[in-house]
Amino acid sequence: MESDGSGPVDLDAAFATGVEDPVSLLTLLELSIEQSSAGDSGEEQQEFLRKLLQLLEDHPKVTAVISWDLPNQLMKFLVPRNVALHKNLRSIPIVSPLMRCFLVVAVSGDPRDTLLCACTLFEGVSADDEINRYITWERASKTADAAKSSQEVKADGDSDGDDTSVSLERSPGDLFVGLKLHILFELVTAALKRIKTLYPSKYLGMTVFAIEKAITKNSGLLQDPSIILRRGYSFCRNYEPTAPPREVILTNDAKLTEDELHSTIENELELQRRLLRRLCTSTVGEGLKSTTDRSEVKYYYKLCKKREPRAPFYELLVDVKSRLYDLANSFDISLKDELVNCIAESKKVYGAVPQVSAVRSKEARKLIEKQVLKLSLSHQLQRMTKDLSMQLNMRGIVALSSIFYLVEDEHLYPEMHLSDAVYLYLWFVSPALLSKANENLSVEGAIRYFMWVSVTQHSCSELREDLYHVSGIVLAAFFRCLLLRCCAERSAMSRSLGFTLLTRLLCSCPEKVSFAFIVDTLQSFPYMQGRTFLLGVLRDMFLTALPSGSFSREDKSETVVQDKSVNQDDLSAKLSQLEIGIGCSTFMNLTRERMDVLTDLMVDSVDALSQASDPQISFVEHFPDFITPLQGQWDPSLFERVIAKLRELTDHRTIQDKLDKLE
């Protein structure tokens, strides 16, 4: 054969001896692919693929011996130069012969070699790489035709939709990852059906773990998560756990007895079912990580008796979500039982955290609180050392539990304690504070939905009694985590819901814990938005009356008595709309000790202002709004001390205008 491999004679000769020398054939194919890709037009590649397709069909034995690397070589055609970003795939000439080549490999290739090659390629699929490759190619394309094409694409792709509409443009990551996943899923599906073995779970397990890696690696980078969700659903739905073929059983190379053979077959069927259950939950848990969970939004608007705003992007996801939910049910996954197991696991992580009373110094409490936020990640690293290959994906269980509400319009676990949701939130969400790679918006939104259900399904006294038994350090870490996530939230709707939920939770928490957290946040929180928000919450807690008969407390002990309870199911009535009756308790009592602490905090904050442009001035500007409504309850001397300190800020017109209204 000729070394340049440019003519059809070279391929014909190579295939004629391919069975005896598959390595040389693959080397020639690789060189031929590189040469055809170097041409100025796609006609040379189309001609090459047609010729290759014919040879693969005519030489099935050769196809079998080169199937261990042929899919890898064929993937090299899937580059931006050959596949236009905004064209229908059927209109791209190279796609049809390329897909037919993959089909021949799936039918005629050695199934074990094909499966191994496909699993390796699964792990290499990367939306990041595809995007970078496209950007590099686009920058290198400086011809007039490329510039004209770019203008046409821009004209066709413009959209006036908002951030919840379906984008008309297709990203390079979505296109190439979606195309490659389609090919690889077809390859592994065909290979698994053709492998004759006594242990099919061995090959299914290898496939499942390769798919999971591809999902985890790419789910947060795709604009359309349904690309992954539909592939995972189709694979699980179409794969049927089967016993080994009759010829394998009759051969019985392992020399098993009749009982051993029967036991092996039963075990294999069960292992395959467990692997499919795991992949189903992994597809949901990891495939939705970049999308906000809508159960929280749906439930909130239902409580407010308002129509939920339309979000076409999420409406399109409902169909595939409901299919995955039905698939989980077909696998007999008991979502409630599995969710309870998740809660029990999360409690183990934080069970050893001491109560506040057991830690003497404030510095020690702060140090422990920081460590609490790292416990989840440490626990996950420990779990990785154990064999968890057959366990269900816990993120998937949490996500499916909220999808239950979207599909069934009822709560899966309405009796869930608020403390359970707190532990879940810390366990699943706190790792995102350490690295964005750990972020899972779907699971985070699902747990916030659990919290909404809990605060509306339990009375005020039940909620406070429940949280009374949770370590104050754990609660402080939880509140800080929730506040940080709310401040970092990009969606205005999710951010608003998060702040509203945080307000309700602070009102449901023992006073000492809530007050300590708020004061600590006002002193040291990095985002002024968070400080300003909590200052307003604290003012409302001082002013807002508790529902009649909800609590019986003493200022010093703050003991919660579980007797008369009143449900608060209507969230549409805001805290500020409640009036304080004579002798009524408020969500937080304004004691002299608390007045002293807050007075010192406000005075120190003003003293700490270094210059007029200090970012903290946006926080200080809200002091008059905070203390003015409380003037009748505040100690006069302490009140005047704060006002006098604020009047020293003569350069800040906003503050002075607010103070002038007091006179």
Description:
α15 (295-303) packs parallel to α22, α19 (394-408) crosses α22 (441-457) and α26 (511-524) runs antiparallel to α27 (528-543). The model is unreliable at 1-9, 152-168 and 549-584 (pLDDT under 50). The chain is built from 32 helices and no strands. It has 663 residues and is mostly helical. The chain has helices at residues 8-16, 22-37, 43-58, 60-66, 70-74, 95-108, 111-124, 127-140, 144-157, 172-194, 200-218, 226-238, 246-251, 258-287, 295-303, 312-330, 335-350, 362-384, 394-408, 418-429, 431-434, 441-457, 460-468, 472-488, 492-507, 511-524, 528-543, 592-607, 617-620, 623-627, 636-647, 653-660. It has three domains: 6-140 and 169-195; 196-287; 289-509, no CATH class.
Features:
663 residues, 32 helices, elongated
Short structural description:
With 663 residues, the protein is an all-alpha fold.
What ranges have pLDDT less than 50 throughout 5 or more consecutive residues? 1-9, 152-168, 549-584
Domain count: 3
Could you estimate the helical fraction of the residues in percent?
Answer: 55-70%
Largest sheet: none
Query: What is the overall number of helices?
Result: 32
> What is the mean pLDDT?
85
Instruction: Note the overall shape.
Output: elongated
The total of beta strands comes to 0
Alpha carbon gyration radius: 31 Å
Query: How much beta, percentage-wise?
Result: under 5%
Class from secondary-structure proportions: mainly alpha
Task: Compute the separation of the termini in Å.
Answer: 100 Å
